Amino acid sequence: MHLESVLQHTFDTRRDTKKIFVAMTHKFTIRTDKNKDGKCLVFLLIRSGKLKTTMNLDIKIDPKYWDNLRCRVKKSENFENFNIILDTIEAKIITIKRDFLIYERVLTPELLVENINNSVPAFDFISFCTFHSESGNYKPNTLKAHKTAINKLKEFRKEIPFSMLTLEFFEKYRKWLLTYKGNKDPTCFTDFKILKKFINLADEKGIRLAFNKDKFIVKESKTTPVFLEPEEVGRLHKYYFNEFISRYHFLPLGYFLFSCYTGLRISDIQNLKRQDVEQDIFRFKHVKTSNDQYMKITDELRSILDYNPKLFIDRLSDQKINKQLKNIADVCKIEKSISMHVARHTFATTFLKNSGSIAKLSKLLGHSTMKHTMVYAHLTDQDALQEMRRISYSKSEEEDEQINTQSPS
């Protein structure tokens, strides 16, 4: 169906049954007061029922050159440039009104001015996500996650109008991430959590969605976090203190072991300075939650810090650290894909296996709620099952003989 037909069909079927399209008039006019140069400010006047708003255009002219009938500047200095600006705004208003009508959004004078001023993308989902991500007050790591998720979406389709978004669309996109991109379920969960955020924001902004956003449910897949056993950490510890350790491994492994002893995220480790860790107990602020916390340097960790004076002075990117950790695992014969977050998992499981409480672990990890910590409780289930051997209701023959011998005749 051609655009004109779509517009006509939309207008004919909706203008009477839904209060989507509200009559709105606009015109360019000038203020009555003059500045010191005798010029008046040109502005846009918008009316919709009893609602009225204005938008200053930063154009000043001598009132004798204003054409009240045409609402344009008469022939004078810069009149052509001024009129081009007014014509451009006029065309933009028509486009905005058309788009709001097609997507069944209620257009108010304030929204019209906002769309003229900011060019807020309200009809292409990718542009919408990009705009609100860059203009929002997000932390660097959050912005980085947004950019990754948006770039993948852009790779899937260059443009995605809101009308294309359906639950079926997101299911196809998820399959594409898993098969074509080779992403794992946790990565998909992170990406979809970000998309869900922008879907909710679009709904708040009044953008009409082609599906029920409440049915767009993002579930975290139940996966077992990777962690190292004490013997595996011991191998890394031994390699760290080996005089033949690769110079490319020394710094990344030092940061990894630091996280194994403290449970700090890589973002928090990257924020620390050497002077912070020189103290036995130091205070830091979580990058993710902005919560303040204290952490202790144990004797074993102190020896690691003292052995490499460049720790928390020389820096590597997250990507370089994680890349080198995979090489370190190969050298140390550890058949697990390790990253800095594996060190955090290792700290948590080791703490619980050594009879640490889940509540105290939650404090040490800086979790905002206990539910985030409960995932680690499942990691010690296998250890608990080993203790089942303590339960027995049948005696061995040897035990029966001992009982009979001790019984009175």
TrEMBL record:
Keywords: DNA recombination, DNA-binding
The UniProt record lists the keyword DNA-binding: yes
Domain Tyr recombinase residues, every copy: 223-390
Keyword hit for DNA-binding: yes
PROSITE patterns xrefs: TYR_RECOMBINASE
Family per similarity comment: Belongs to the 'phage' integrase family.
Classification via PANTHER family: PHAGE INTEGRASE-RELATED (PTHR30349), PROPHAGE INTEGRASE INTD-RELATED (PTHR30349:SF64)
Name of protein: Site-specific integrase
